[in-house]
Inverse folding.
């Protein structure tokens, strides 16, 4: 199969050779446009001026020419832009979708949403799910990290941007490229008020994910306003094939409309005006408006993705402006830092609200990159800027359009403060790391800089500054942060459970699942559809297959033992100890009730712990993985710090309170689009779930798409004990727990262990924590006394102070004194008692 780049290149040549068949030429000509070929880049374009020789791209036309001279008499602010866009297309019959979260939980292939088409991939685009209308608009906040180094410099680049989408999903016979072009052309000319003579329309092609088609890009005075992708074909082994559902994907950067229509020197002041004003006030920086208006038309040329030699571009711009490079940079770079801080704080607000967390791995790492870039600018310039204050200001400004961003601002503040603490810790380590590096090598490569940042958080600016002090030159790549971001483009779950599948089975209908409605369905009658070696497929089953972190059921088919169960593409396969079943046989199934109950209790408890962790820790908590065995359950959650004993106790109490209140567990089957519309993206707590229909399990506010065995009400869990927690990676905390019979056994084990520890210390159970702490303190005192020869030291153990708590809590307190685990206490205490007695003997 060819790459998307190869497909795009080939199709673009074909489309350019046959424009009438691939572009809306009829409407272009009807509106007076003539086709031309750019003398600079060789691309084809359409314009009203038949003699025009260059296309509309700023690189070919000499930069932006709308600064201080917008092409339209209409003026739009940021919020007014969406109102006008929405009004225009709703009059044409388009349905308005609300934005989706920027973390693409519903997709297995990406972490961040990168465009307005993402919410409709893959199911709507493939025709598996019908959209609410075939013609839709959506304002979709999106994040891309490939342009980090350009943010602030070019005046136009963003990590977080709002993509205004005009989309169609049509059968081939109803697909009307001419109509879609005319409707968007109407928005540009009538809605935005740009005269047709100010428009240059480019021919291009697009390819991605195996699909492709022609596209048209709309330019005015050097700025690309938006582009329409006419997604009509897919790539196969046999060649190109028309899609059964053809798509129009028009994406227009929201931020560009107010910038273009106001003719400002940069887009940041028009995108977040109140934050820009706040930053000017805090920093005391006053832009040289006259210089910036002259500079910004050239700023697009500083795009690190397109410029081969950034230093030369700076020199060329300075020469054109008749100013020295040093003076130009001294005016531009502080502004670029200010705008970057403003932009990155907005991106952080959106990402954190939508349940992303900064991390050292996966998509969360890119979020950490921009936060540390912003904190680095604040540090370098010595500005007193609080990112959480900026986030709150962004939320306030965006309230009319995105009121949800004003929710949970306190949670956003805590996460940002935690990131600042980690940044300062990394900064403190950096000097020693850099010093060690220079002592080993006189040269620092770009790869070394990336690795230093990636592994230890050492900023390249710090390395460059330290190197300069030692007379060593370090070249920091212009696209440094983009290089780092490339390493962490895809997120992954911390834990997962699935069976490897190698069997070749015939095409069968999907297995009817009998445990979805009630976990107590333990016996059933079924028919054998397929049997080979030790494997059997039935038309229906109550046996649960290993999946979703939960172990499989065991039991009997007639009198034959079922020892394993797994699932593949909707078919459940039973692995038999000895198999004599044949296709067509009627069988009676029996599931082991004790195993089923315990696994059900641990699986339901995973949902319950997730619910309570969110209530105790905050709305940023998201399930990152889970495992449920007979012995215990474990839940991995997103959280920015280790959990304290108090937090674990609060989560456990919350769980048991809900069990005592007998909270119902609701289970329902819903079409995917209905489930998403009714409950939102939180249904994907356990990750992407395939299928057109989803089983939704609700426990209070915790609503998840899940196929596991679940209680009918929480009273069936009997009780829950949290065993402890650990930080398994940055941003991921693992909570271990037991429920049901396992919890009862654990309580008995704790009580027996406490009794054993009590005997070792010679005190009552309630006196164990205080006596354990006393033992440790007297042991330390004895060591010091021995060193100093203090024979009169008081080393007797006399504490009888009592404390309240469960056996588990009392043991945890005692274990904390010795930095050990409760199960190691008897041996640890005996060792310390023996050593203390030895010290006493030497001091006598």
């Amino acid at each position: 199969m060819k790459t998307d780049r190869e497909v795009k290149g080939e199709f673009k040549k074909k489309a350019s050779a046959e424009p009438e068949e691939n572009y809306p030429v009829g409407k272009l000509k009807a509106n007076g446009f003539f086709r031309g070929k750019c003398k600079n880049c060789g691309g084809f374009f359409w314009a009203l001026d038949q003699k025009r020789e260059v296309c509309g791209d700023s690189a070919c036309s000499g930069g932006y020419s709308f600064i201080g001279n917008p092409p339209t008499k209409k003026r739009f602010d940021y919020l007014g832009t969406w109102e006008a866009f929405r009004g225009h297309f709703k009059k044409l019959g388009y349905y308005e979708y609300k934005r989706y979260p920027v973390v693409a939980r519903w997709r297995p292939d990406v972490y961040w949403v990168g465009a307005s088409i993402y919410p409709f991939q893959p199911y709507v685009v493939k025709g598996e799910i019908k959209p609410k209308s075939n013609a839709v608009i959506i304002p979709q906040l999106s994040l891309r990290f490939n342009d980090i180094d350009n943010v602030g410099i070019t005046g136009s680049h963003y990590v977080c941007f709002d993509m205004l989408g005009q989309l169609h999903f049509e059968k081939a016979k109803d697909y009307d490229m001419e109509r879609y072009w005319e409707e968007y052309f109407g928005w540009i000319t009538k809605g935005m008020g740009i005269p047709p003579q100010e428009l240059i329309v480019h021919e291009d092609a697009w390819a991605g994910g195996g699909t492709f088609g022609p596209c048209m890009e709309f330019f005015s005075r050097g700025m690309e306003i938006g582009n329409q992708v006419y997604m009509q074909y897919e790539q196969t082994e046999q060649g190109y094939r028309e899609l059964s559902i053809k798509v129009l994907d028009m994406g227009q950067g929201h931020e560009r409309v107010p910038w273009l229509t106001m003719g400002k020197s940069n887009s940041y002041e028009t995108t977040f005006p109140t934050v820009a004003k706040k930053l000017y006030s805090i920093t005391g920086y006053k832009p040289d408006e006259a210089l910036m208006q002259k500079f910004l038309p050239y700023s697009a040329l500083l795009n690190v993705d397109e410029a081969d030699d950034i230093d030369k571009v700076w020199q060329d711009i300075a020469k054109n402006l008749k100013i020295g490079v040093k003076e130009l940079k001294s005016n531009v770079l502080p502004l670029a830092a200010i705008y970057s801080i403003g932009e990155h704080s907005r991106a952080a607000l959106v990402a954190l609200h939508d349940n992303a967390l900064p991390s050292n791995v996966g998509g969360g790492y890119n979020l950490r990159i921009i936060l540390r870039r912003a904190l680095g600018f604040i540090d370098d310039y010595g500005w007193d800027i609080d990112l959480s204050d900026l986030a709150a200001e962004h939320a306030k400004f965006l309230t009319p359009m995105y009121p949800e961003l004003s929710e949970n601002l306190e949670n956003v503040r805590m996460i940002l403060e935690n990131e600042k603490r980690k940044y300062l810790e990394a900064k403190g380590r950096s000097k020693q790391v850099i010093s060690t590096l220079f002592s080993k090598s006189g040269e620092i490569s770009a790869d070394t800089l990336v690795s230093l940042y990636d592994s230890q958080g050492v900023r390249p600016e710090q390395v460059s500054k330290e190197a300069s002090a030692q007379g060593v030159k370090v070249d920091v790549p212009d696209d440094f942060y983009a290089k780092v971001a490339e390493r962490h483009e895809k997120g992954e779950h911390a834990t997962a459970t699935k069976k490897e599948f190698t069997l070749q089975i015939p095409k069968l209908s999907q297995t009817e699942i009998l445990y979805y409605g009630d976990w107590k369905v333990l016996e059933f009658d079924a028919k054998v559809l397929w049997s080979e070696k030790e494997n059997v497929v039935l038309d229906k089953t109550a046996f649960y297959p290993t999946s979703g972190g939960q172990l499989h059921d065991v039991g009997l088919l007639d009198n034959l033992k079922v020892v394993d169960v797994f699932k593949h593409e909707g078919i459940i396969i039973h692995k038999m100890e000895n198999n004599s079943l044949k296709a067509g046989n009627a069988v009676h199934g029996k599931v082991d009730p004790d195993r089923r109950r315990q696994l059900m209790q641990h699986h339901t408890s995973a949902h319950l712990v997730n619910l309570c962790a969110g209530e105790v820790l905050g709305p940023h908590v998201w399930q990152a993985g889970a495992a449920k065995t007979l012995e215990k359950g474990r839940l991995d959650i997103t959280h920015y710090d280790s959990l304290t004993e108090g937090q674990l106790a609060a989560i456990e109490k919350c769980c048991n309170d809900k069990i005592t209140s007998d909270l119902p567990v609701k289970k329902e089957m819903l079409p995917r689009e209905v489930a998403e519309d009714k409950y939102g993206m939180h249904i994907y707590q356990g990750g992407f779930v395939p299928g057109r229909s989803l089983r939704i399990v609700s426990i209070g506010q915790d609503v998840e798409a899940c196929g596991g065995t679940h209680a009918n009400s929480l009273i069936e869990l009997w009780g829950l004990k949290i065993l402890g927690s650990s930080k398994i990676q940055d941003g991921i905390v693992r909570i271990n727990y037991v429920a049901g019979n396992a919890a009862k056994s654990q309580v008995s084990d704790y009580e027996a262990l406490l009794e054993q520890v009590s005997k070792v210390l010679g005190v009552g159970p309630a006196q164990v924590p205080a006596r354990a702490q006393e033992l440790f303190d007297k042991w330390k005192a004895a060591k010091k006394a021995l060193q100093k020869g203090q024979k009169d030291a008081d080393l007797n153990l006399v504490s009888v102070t009592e404390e309240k708590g469960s056996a588990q809590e009392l043991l945890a307190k005692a274990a904390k004194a010795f930095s050990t685990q409760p199960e190691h206490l008897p041996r640890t205490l005996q060792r310390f008692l023996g050593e203390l007695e030895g010290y006493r003997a030497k001091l006598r």
The two ends are 85 Å apart (CA to CA).
